[in-house]
Amino acid sequence: MNEIPFPNGYRMPAEWEPHAGTWLTWPHNLETWPDQDMEQVEFDYLQIVKALTEGEKTHILVQDKSAEEDLHKKLQTNGINMNQVLLYDIPTNDSWIRDYGPNFLIREEDGEVAINDWDFDSWGRKYKWELDDLACSIIAEQLQFPSFKPGIVLEGGAIEVNGRGTCLTTDSCILNPNRNDGIRRERMEEFLKNYLGVSKIIWLHGELEGDDTDGHIDNLARFVNPNTIVCALEESERDVNFLGLKQNYERLETAKDPDGNPFHIIPLPMPGYVGSKEERLPASYANFYIANHAVLVPSYDHPNDQRALDLLTPLFPERKIIQIQCKTLIWGLGGVHCLTQQQPDSLRK
C-alpha cells in the first residue's frame, strides 16, 4: 500500500459522479438485526445488489471462503449477473460499510483514485467491535491505491459533498467527545478541507430519535446536484423530531456556497414513527443512494413512500428511481445509503 501523508490535489467526488463500482458488506451479524428474520434481511439486501449490478460493478465483503462460496451460489440462484460482482474475504463486525469502508478520492490532475482511511470507533465506542476499523486498510492494500491516514475518527455517513467545494456535516456527530476527545470545530474543519478537498463546511445538528450515530448527515440532508439540497422535514408539530429538522431546514435556507451563492433547498417528508412501542427507529427517506443508472430510495410501507418517490424522481431525470424495502433493514439502525459506499471512476483512459 502506497501511504501518502497528505492528499494535495485530490477531492471527494459527489455521489452522482461516475462510479467504477459500489462496495457492500453482506449481512451476517445477528446482533445487527435483533429479533429480525435474517432471511428477510438477506432478501431485502439482495434487491440492493440486483439494482446495483444493472449499472456498475458491485464489490461485496464476506466473512471467509465458506461464506464466499455460499454467497456466490445464492447470487447465481437469484439471477445476479456475476460478471458484475467481486467478492472479498475480509471479515467485519457489521454491514454498515458507508461508515468504516474506504472514503474514495480522485485527483483532478490525472484522475488517479485514492483512499482516505479514517479511524472508526463503532460510533463513539458504542459497540465492542474492532474488525470494521481494519477493513478499509485491507481494501486499500488489495486495490493498491494511494492511501491517506488522517488519524482521526470520521464515519462516511457523517459527511456529504457536492464535488464543488461544499461539505455538509453535523456538530452532534463529528464534534462529539466520544469521537475525537472534544476536537475543536476549527481543527475539524481543517481536516475536512484538507482531506476532502472542500473549502466550505455547512454545520447542521443531528438529533434524530433512535439514531445511534449521534446524527449522521445522510439521514438529514443530501445534495442531489451541486446547487440543490433535499432536507428531511417532519410535518407533525407533535413529533419529537419536528423542531430539530425545522432548524436544519432554516439553516440551509441561509447557507451559501464558496462563491457566496445560495442553495436551492427542497423539503423531503419523513416517514413518521417507524418502530415498536418500545423503540423508535431512525427511518428517513434522505438515506437514498445514487448509483450510476439509478437512485435507490428507502421505503417503509408508509403513505409518504410515494410522496418521497414523486419528489425525488424529477430531480434525477437520467436515473431510474428504485424503491428498496427497509422496514426490516432499519431495525439495524441504518438504511440503503449506510449499506453502500461508492468508488469513483478514474478519469484515466
Structural description of this entry:
The chain is an alpha/beta fold. It has one domain (about 10-345): L-arginine/glycine Amidinotransferase, Chain A, CATH 3.75.10.10. The protein contains ten helices and 17 strands. A four-stranded mixed β-sheet has the order 1-5-6-7, with no helix packed on it. Strand 2, helix 1 (about 40-55) and strand 3 form a beta-alpha-beta unit. The two termini are about 25 Å apart. The mean pLDDT is about 95.
Q: Would you kindly provide a brief summary of this structure?
A:
This protein has 349 residues and is an alpha/beta fold. The chain contains 10 helices and 17 strands. It has a single domain (10-344), classed as 5-stranded Propeller (L-arginine/glycine Amidinotransferase, Chain A).
Write the layout of secondary structure elements.
Layout: E1 10-11, E2 19-25, H1 38-53, E3 57-62, H2 65-77, E4 85-89, H3 97-100, E5 103-107, E6 113-116, H4 122-125, H5 131-143, E7 147-148, E8 160-161, E9 166-170, H6 171-174, H7 177-180, H8 185-196, E10 200-204, E11 221-225, E12 228-233, H9 242-253, E13 264-269, E14 289-290, E15 294-299, H10 304-312, E16 320-325, E17 341-344
Parallel strand pairs: 2-3, 3-4, 6-7, 9-10, 12-13, 15-16
Antiparallel strand pairs: 1-5, 2-17, 5-6, 8-9, 11-12, 14-15
